[in-house]
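Help!! Second protein's tokens look totally different from the first
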Amino acid sequence: MSGSPVEVEGTVLAVLPRALYLVAIEGGREVQAHALSGPRVNFIRLIVGDRVMVALAPKDHTRGRVIRRLPKGR
């Protein structure tokens, strides 16, 4: 049973090589996340300080996927 991803809000701390991002999430934890990709997804450039929604892997909560950027006023 694989389970479904857990979605959490976070802030981009650093832009890493190979389209990876270091994201701070609740509880003071940091995760490595990659941007959502595919033929139908628009290219989104993230910078340090952006608020994002991250889907964490069900079995490994230290890795995830950035699924969307959140509005600045949030």
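Here's the second one for comparison:
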Amino acid sequence: MTPRWAYKYRHNGIIRSCLVIAGLIIIVSLSISVFEWVHNYNAVHFAEAQTSAANHGHPSGAPSTVKPSDAVFNSYTVAPSQPRYLFINSIGVRAMIKPLGVTTSGAIDTPSNVYDVGWYNKSSLPGMPGAAVIDGHVTGWNADGVFFNLDKLEAGDTITVELGSGSLLTYHVSKSVLYDTSNFDMSALLSSVSPNKPGLNLITCAGELIPSTGHYDKRLVVFAIEN
């Protein structure tokens, strides 16, 4: 028969082991929380610094959040055949269209200001066969982007593009598609949803922000066709 003192010793040993395990769990949890806090703190300050640099006209990885004045907007010019302004009254979009190419990594470039949109200059010109591709930011560090409400567009909504010549082109939304960034359909982006009519495809970020990369995990594309 096992003595009573042995049971008591064993019981106390189990309690001590549980306390040690609980203490280790608390320490690990606190370490993870501190690491996440430091990581987020550094990310926030990095984003603030990048945005501040952009707002002061310095090269930056973040877009500026300084809204262009009416004078700057009204005096903006482009070649007669190129897109100058984008208007989407239903979601309050009134933006200058800047011609953009690709980044050093081969991705379509984005505007340097959250209030501007960009026409991808390897896509079709508005009004021409194929599809004109226009991208814009969904948000900046301290301001909503020009395409913040792009997901609210519905089939039939009107989009207007003004060319450098002053001519107006009217499009109607056909559909919206949400793509995973890892499985994006570039061919669809560059194509009109109607084989017989010029298209206008608007793209912005969507989904969840990935902290490690600073990029969103999805892309929203709104497909429209010219009247």
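Reply: Different proteins will give different token patterns, so don't panic. Strands lie at 83-88, 93-100, 117-120, 131-136, 158-163, 168-180, 199-210, 215-226.
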